[in-house]
Amino acid sequence: MRDIEARFQLERPGFTLDVDLRLPGRGVSALFGVSGSGKTTLLRCIAGLERAARGRLVVDGEVWQDGSRWRPTHQRPIGYVFQEASLFPHLSVQANLRYGLRRSPGASDTPLTQAIELLGIGHLLARRPAQLSGGERQRVAIARALAVSPRVLLMDEPLSALDLRRRQEVLPYLDRLHDELAMPLLYVSHAPDEVARLADHLVVLEQGRVQAQGPLRETLSRLDLPIRLGEDASAIVDARVTEIDAAWHLVRVDFDGGHLWARDPGLVLGQRVRVRVLARDVSLALAPGTSSIQNVLPGVVDAVGDDEHPGLALVRVRVGDALLLSRLTRRSAAALQVAPGQALWVQVKSVALLE
Ligand SMILES: Nc1ncnc2c1ncn2[C@@H]1O[C@H](COP(=O)(O)OP(=O)(O)OP(=O)(O)O)[C@@H](O)[C@H]1O
């Protein structure tokens, strides 16, 4: 699967979308930005729902749109999942799933069967939408989008209408999509924790323009970006579970730069995990010290940048191959004489393990 090339300009009263994107042909690309930044508009352009959008769209080597060509929505092989599952209330889950297939006569049943398995909804097929939980409805909506064998799956904040428990229930299925789908998935979200967990590639939109785009880890560790992420500024580290301390309900994960201890969310030995480390949970010290913090790693300062408040600095520290961010007061940074190339100790107060 080749990259997606998406260039669009769209003028609306009080809002202009002007983007030039190259998205990987596989994996999850998160479109991230505050409300009104143009995320939904961008998805609609890709789906061919914004006739006024000028630009160029190439998916898997096929031109869907350029100066002279325009494929209407029904000729674009996409799956579209909205915030709320729009299922027909009078039809069973099975009939809802088959509904989308009517558009493509002769389509094989295999993708639908696979989607039912992937989303774990085989036992729900005879039910009506009113007999499903919000999370189950959303899983059905995702399966319906996959049943038509799309070349791209577009998801517009698929969890935002769900409460925390239902979100937790659906997230593992999104992980499965991430791991098992060979097609690209464009995932709109304004929730940094979802992005950190699911995305491989990140696009940050602000007022209709792209502020940053690139692989997730690199893009998150850009020093100009955390300002936009505020309290959610974080780094992602790829690690593996190497020890489980059942007595203290802790788990040890190892990565290239050392190891970290975290609360055990129920992991198994050897499991690969993404570790999310918030910049505000990372402090720096000249010596390992004797504080209550158990996660202390040797690192080297990579860069020092401004933060949103003049009293704060953001420091990027290399720990092995990983880059961590630390948010500290300018006064502390001055006291430690923090500067690129300096070796110091990184104290990590807490981390989140994202399976
Ligand atoms: N049909 C429309 N006609 C005119 N303007 C619109 C229309 N839909 C959205 N807009 C405007 O376009 C801009 C981008 O909206 P869009 O829905 O793409 O943002 P978003 O990032 O998806 O926001 P949210 O997270 O709230 O869904 C906003 O200023 C919005 O008010």
TrEMBL record:
One of its GO terms (molecular function) is ATP binding. SMART domains: AAA. It holds the Pfam family ABC_tran. Keywords: ATP-binding, Cell inner membrane, Cell membrane, Membrane, Molybdenum, Nucleotide-binding, Translocase, Transport. InterPro entries: AAA+_ATPase, ABC_transporter-like_ATP-bd, ABC_transporter-like_CS, Mo/tungstate-bd_C_term_dom, ModC_ABC_ATP-bd, Molybdenum_import_ModC, Mop_domain, P-loop_NTPase. Residues 1-232 form the ABC transporter domain. One of its GO terms (cellular component) is membrane. This is Molybdenum ABC transporter ATP-binding protein. Gene3D superfamilies: 2.40.50.100, P-loop containing nucleotide triphosphate hydrolases. Residues 290-355 form the Mop domain.
